Amino acid sequence: MADARPDLLYVSNGAMEREVVALAAESGAAVVCSAGEVEWLRAAGVAQVFVTPGWRQYASARTLRQGRELAAGEWPVLLTVSDGAGGDAAGGAQGALRYRICTEGHLGRAPEAIAAAALAAMAGVRILRTDRVTETRRTVDMIASIAGTRQPARVRRALA
Predict the structure, then answer these.
(1) Number of domains in the chain
(2) Which of 122, 93, 124, 121 is nearest to 109 (CA)?
(3) Mean pLDDT for the chain overall
(4) pTM exceeds 0.90, yes or no
Protein backbone atom coordinates (compact mmCIF):
# COMPACT_ATOMS: atom_id res chain seq x y z
CA MET A 1 0.00 0.00 0.00
CA ALA A 2 2.97 2.31 0.52
CA ASP A 3 3.36 2.85 -3.21
CA ALA A 4 -0.36 3.36 -3.92
CA ARG A 5 -1.02 6.43 -6.07
CA PRO A 6 -4.26 8.30 -6.69
CA ASP A 7 -5.82 8.65 -10.14
CA LEU A 8 -8.03 11.59 -9.20
CA LEU A 9 -7.90 14.16 -6.41
CA TYR A 10 -11.00 16.24 -5.65
CA VAL A 11 -10.41 19.49 -3.80
CA SER A 12 -13.05 22.07 -4.63
CA ASN A 13 -13.19 24.27 -1.56
CA GLY A 14 -10.08 26.33 -2.24
CA ALA A 15 -8.06 24.49 0.42
CA MET A 16 -5.55 22.96 -1.98
CA GLU A 17 -2.34 22.13 -0.12
CA ARG A 18 1.08 22.16 -1.75
CA GLU A 19 1.70 18.52 -0.75
CA VAL A 20 -1.48 17.44 -2.54
CA VAL A 21 -0.46 19.34 -5.66
CA ALA A 22 3.03 17.82 -5.56
CA LEU A 23 1.52 14.33 -5.23
CA ALA A 24 -0.76 14.95 -8.21
CA ALA A 25 2.08 16.27 -10.35
CA GLU A 26 4.39 13.40 -9.38
CA SER A 27 1.84 10.61 -9.82
CA GLY A 28 0.08 11.96 -12.89
CA ALA A 29 -3.23 12.16 -11.04
CA ALA A 30 -5.92 14.46 -12.35
CA VAL A 31 -7.19 17.17 -10.02
CA VAL A 32 -10.73 18.51 -9.67
CA CYS A 33 -10.53 22.12 -8.55
CA SER A 34 -12.21 25.50 -8.73
CA ALA A 35 -11.53 27.73 -11.73
CA GLY A 36 -9.28 30.01 -9.69
CA GLU A 37 -6.80 27.21 -9.01
CA VAL A 38 -6.25 26.00 -12.58
CA GLU A 39 -3.24 28.13 -13.50
CA TRP A 40 -1.51 27.42 -10.19
CA LEU A 41 -1.99 23.67 -10.68
CA ARG A 42 -0.76 23.77 -14.27
CA ALA A 43 2.33 25.75 -13.22
CA ALA A 44 2.99 23.12 -10.53
CA GLY A 45 3.02 20.38 -13.17
CA VAL A 46 -0.47 18.88 -12.88
CA ALA A 47 -1.28 17.54 -16.35
CA GLN A 48 -5.05 16.96 -16.17
CA VAL A 49 -7.42 19.42 -14.52
CA PHE A 50 -11.22 19.33 -14.22
CA VAL A 51 -13.04 22.50 -13.18
CA THR A 52 -15.93 22.36 -10.71
CA PRO A 53 -17.97 25.27 -9.40
CA GLY A 54 -17.10 24.37 -5.84
CA TRP A 55 -18.99 23.03 -2.90
CA ARG A 56 -21.60 25.72 -2.45
CA GLN A 57 -25.08 25.30 -3.90
CA TYR A 58 -25.24 28.74 -5.46
CA ALA A 59 -22.04 28.00 -7.40
CA SER A 60 -23.52 24.80 -8.84
CA ALA A 61 -26.74 26.57 -9.81
CA ARG A 62 -24.69 29.34 -11.43
CA THR A 63 -22.78 26.68 -13.38
CA LEU A 64 -26.06 25.42 -14.80
CA ARG A 65 -26.92 28.94 -15.95
CA GLN A 66 -23.45 29.56 -17.42
CA GLY A 67 -22.82 26.00 -18.56
CA ARG A 68 -22.29 26.74 -22.24
CA GLU A 69 -19.71 29.43 -21.49
CA LEU A 70 -17.82 27.20 -19.06
CA ALA A 71 -18.00 24.14 -21.32
CA ALA A 72 -16.58 26.18 -24.19
CA GLY A 73 -13.47 26.88 -22.11
CA GLU A 74 -10.20 25.00 -22.14
CA TRP A 75 -10.94 22.74 -19.15
CA PRO A 76 -13.57 20.02 -18.77
CA VAL A 77 -16.30 20.97 -16.29
CA LEU A 78 -17.49 18.69 -13.48
CA LEU A 79 -20.84 19.30 -11.79
CA THR A 80 -22.47 17.49 -8.88
CA VAL A 81 -26.14 16.68 -9.44
CA SER A 82 -27.33 14.88 -6.38
CA ASP A 83 -30.40 13.99 -4.40
CA GLY A 84 -28.24 13.45 -1.33
CA ALA A 85 -26.50 16.00 0.87
CA GLY A 86 -26.61 19.69 -0.02
CA GLY A 87 -24.00 21.52 -2.03
CA ASP A 88 -25.17 20.55 -5.49
CA ALA A 89 -27.06 22.01 -8.40
CA ALA A 90 -30.41 20.41 -7.58
CA GLY A 91 -30.41 21.60 -3.99
CA GLY A 92 -29.20 25.05 -4.95
CA ALA A 93 -31.85 25.43 -7.61
CA GLN A 94 -34.55 24.51 -5.11
CA GLY A 95 -33.15 26.85 -2.48
CA ALA A 96 -32.67 23.98 -0.02
CA LEU A 97 -30.15 24.54 2.74
CA ARG A 98 -29.34 20.90 3.53
CA TYR A 99 -31.14 17.66 2.95
CA ARG A 100 -30.34 14.00 3.25
CA ILE A 101 -31.85 10.87 1.77
CA CYS A 102 -32.46 8.45 4.63
CA THR A 103 -33.82 5.32 2.99
CA GLU A 104 -32.59 3.44 -0.04
CA GLY A 105 -35.76 3.53 -2.11
CA HIS A 106 -36.77 7.09 -1.30
CA LEU A 107 -37.01 9.36 -4.34
CA GLY A 108 -36.12 12.48 -2.38
CA ARG A 109 -34.96 15.10 -4.85
CA ALA A 110 -34.39 12.69 -7.72
CA PRO A 111 -36.55 14.68 -10.20
CA GLU A 112 -34.60 17.85 -9.44
CA ALA A 113 -31.28 16.03 -9.78
CA ILE A 114 -32.29 14.49 -13.11
CA ALA A 115 -33.51 17.87 -14.38
CA ALA A 116 -30.19 19.43 -13.36
CA ALA A 117 -28.32 16.61 -15.13
CA ALA A 118 -30.33 17.22 -18.30
CA LEU A 119 -29.59 20.95 -18.24
CA ALA A 120 -25.92 20.28 -17.56
CA ALA A 121 -25.69 17.80 -20.45
CA MET A 122 -27.40 20.23 -22.82
CA ALA A 123 -24.95 22.94 -21.75
CA GLY A 124 -21.95 20.74 -22.45
CA VAL A 125 -20.84 19.82 -18.92
CA ARG A 126 -18.68 16.74 -19.53
CA ILE A 127 -18.53 15.11 -16.09
CA LEU A 128 -21.46 14.61 -13.73
CA ARG A 129 -21.05 13.40 -10.17
CA THR A 130 -24.31 11.85 -9.03
CA ASP A 131 -26.03 9.54 -6.58
CA ARG A 132 -28.36 8.19 -9.25
CA VAL A 133 -25.94 6.80 -11.81
CA THR A 134 -28.38 4.73 -13.89
CA GLU A 135 -31.07 7.41 -14.17
CA THR A 136 -28.52 10.13 -14.86
CA ARG A 137 -26.75 8.05 -17.51
CA ARG A 138 -30.05 7.31 -19.27
CA THR A 139 -30.95 11.00 -19.15
CA VAL A 140 -27.60 12.10 -20.55
CA ASP A 141 -27.76 9.43 -23.28
CA MET A 142 -31.24 10.65 -24.24
CA ILE A 143 -30.03 14.26 -24.41
CA ALA A 144 -27.15 13.19 -26.65
CA SER A 145 -29.50 11.20 -28.91
CA ILE A 146 -31.89 14.14 -29.23
CA ALA A 147 -28.98 16.50 -29.93
CA GLY A 148 -27.66 14.13 -32.59
CA THR A 149 -24.30 13.55 -30.93
CA ARG A 150 -25.10 9.90 -30.16
CA GLN A 151 -27.02 7.27 -32.08
CA PRO A 152 -30.12 5.91 -30.31
CA ALA A 153 -29.46 2.62 -28.52
CA ARG A 154 -32.42 0.98 -30.27
CA VAL A 155 -34.10 2.23 -33.41
CA ARG A 156 -37.77 1.32 -33.34
CA ARG A 157 -38.72 3.12 -36.54
CA ALA A 158 -36.79 4.06 -39.62
CA LEU A 159 -34.71 7.16 -39.00
CA ALA A 160 -33.30 9.22 -41.84
Answers:
(1) 2
(2) 93
(3) 74
(4) no
